[in-house]
Request: fold
Amino acid sequence: MSTSSSVETQQTIKVRALFFAQFREELGERSAIWEVQRGTTPADLLDDLSGRSPRIAGLRGVVRVMVNGEFAEMSVPLEDGDELAFIPPVAGGSGCT
Reply:
């Protein structure tokens, strides 16, 4: 029995990632669309990005992720059409005097 294209389509999903700060600087883009296997997590995508840049790899333990506008765990399975944003740590501001 051959695999139909509808079954293959059900096995992959498309997600959009938004990049800010160090992510945008390192990757040279504001966003990307990935076609990934169903069950892929933000952690999986961060692993992929970490392989592209040592600077991004260095953020592994401190970066946060938002999925569809809400903070989420790195282990949450993504759904077709999800939009995620990797949020690096923010520093700066000034102390009150």
